[in-house]
Amino acid sequence: MMSFHGFDLYCQLVVRALCIVRPPVALESLWVLDEVELIEHYSGSLVTFRELAIGKSISIPSFADKEPLGRVQFRVKRGSRVYRAILPIKNMYVFSDTASLNLQRSKVCGVALLEDAQEKNDNGKKELQIGLKPLIIGMGGLGQSDNGWWMIEKGRIGSAAP
After folding, report:
1. What element of type H or E holds 103?
2. Rounded to whole angstroms, how far apart are CA atoms 47 and 148?
3. Tens digits of per-residue pLDDT, 141-159?
4. pLDDT of amino acid 125
C-alpha cells in the first residue's frame, strides 16, 4: 500500500507540474462553445473541471477484477443545448471505497486531457459530447471557484443557469 500512495503522490506532482508548464482550459469555458470544431480546437489540451459526477459502473477497488471499466460523466444543459463530458475510469485506479462512492454522485474536480468532441442527434435533441482522459480526479480544489463558476467575456457559465 505504501508504494501505491507513493505512486499516487508522484502522479499528482507530475500533473501539477504539467499545469504550470501548460495552463489548462476550464471545462466550464468549453460549455459556451456550440460547435464541435470550436471545441476540437482544444484537442490535446489539459482541461480542469469541477462538476457533479455521474458515475456508471464505478466499483470499489476490491471488485476491480470483476468490473474493470467504469465511466464518469458530467452533464450540463444550457438553453436547448446539452453538453456531456465522458471520462473513462479503470476501477483498479480508484483509491478507496469512499472514492468509488464519490465518483458515483458528488462534486468532483480534476485535470484531464481533451481527446475529442462530437455532436449527437437523438430524436431532434442535439447534444455535444466531449471525450476526456482523466489524469487526476478527486474532491480537492485545484483552483476552481467554490460553485463551479467562471467569469469570462461571454458571461457567467457553469453547471447551473446564471
Report:
1. helix 97-104
2. 14
3. 544 444 444 333 333 344 4
4. 80
Per CATH, the number for 2-144 is: 2.40.50
Residue 109, SS3? strand
Instruction: Enter the pTM of the model.
Output: 0.77
Residue whose C-alpha is closest to residue 53's, from 94, 26, 86: 86
For residue 162 the three cell numbers come to 446564471
Contacts 24+ apart (CB under 8 A), 18-26: 18/46, 18/111, 18/135, 19/46, 19/48, 19/111, 22/46, 24/48, 24/111, 25/114, 26/144, 26/150
Per-domain boundaries in the chain: 2-144
